Amino acid sequence: ATPYAPVLVYTNIERRLVSVYDLKSQKLAREIELPIAPRHMVLDTSGTKIGFSDSVDGGFVLFSPYAAAILFTLEDFPPTSDVLFDPNEVDIYYSNSLTGSIGLIDTNTKRTFEMPVTDLEGQELSSPSRSLDGRYVYVANYSTGEVYSLNAFSKVVYRTFEIGNSPARPYTTPEGVFLYMMDKETGRFVSIDQHQFEQYEDIVIGEG
């Protein structure tokens, strides 16, 4: 559901359809056929746009739930899971496991730019997360157990954290103070102060 209008948006992956349901009238308002399979769906920080991506065959669609219309499509786009909207409402980050990179979509120019985070191709990267101020973008490498901190302004890896054999997608606290990282295999939990990038906690809280 969108925050500023009584609209519910849902998808059909097999039929490549987006359905817009009017909660006020309790009727299906519109169905839109997409050029990609909408396996992943993310609402932007303003609540006015949705990013659809396909982690199997690739492709990206930026969609307006209020206009019930496609804003633009990138069909020559790598397979990726959930995208990450920057609070500047222009940049959209994504992970490209095929090239070992964090990618950036400029919604003004509809062009992409990729920043390598590992020299090894074919790594399995998590969906990106970000700091509250949008200064850092984080992504876990499921293949190596590392978590990368990318400076969103300089577009270079600022820090690399060794978490374990099976890192979870990194997250930050709502107030933006701490970065949380965890190894799903051992239950190791690490928290980092995002201001100084100093370790605050490193404990084992349980396996699995």
Features of this protein?
mainly beta; four-stranded antiparallel β-sheet
> What's the tally of helices?
0
Biggest β-sheet, characterized?
Answer: 4 strands, antiparallel
Structural class: mainly beta
Outline the low-pLDDT stretches: none
Strand order of the largest sheet: 4-5-6-7
Percent of sequence in beta strands: over 45%
Overall shape: it is globular
The beta-strand count equals: 19
Percent helix range: under 10%
Q: Whole-Å distance between the termini?
A: 32 Å
Helix and strand element order: EEEEEEEEEEEEEEEEEEE
- Radius of gyration computed on alpha carbons: 18 Å
In short:
Helix content is 0%, strand content 48%. With 208 residues, it is mainly β.
Task: Provide a descriptive summary of the structure in words.
The chain is built from no helices and 19 strands. It has strands at residues 7-12, 17-22, 27-33, 40-43, 50-53, 60-64, 69-74, 84-85, 91-96, 101-106, 111-116, 129-130, 136-141, 146-151, 156-162, 171-172, 178-182, 188-193, 198-204. The strands form 5 sheets. The protein has a 4-stranded antiparallel β-sheet with strand order 4-5-6-7, with no helix packed on it. It has a 4-stranded antiparallel β-sheet with strand order 8-9-10-11, with no helix packed on it. A 4-stranded antiparallel β-sheet has the order 12-13-14-15, with no helix packed on it. The model has no long low-confidence stretch (mean pLDDT 91).
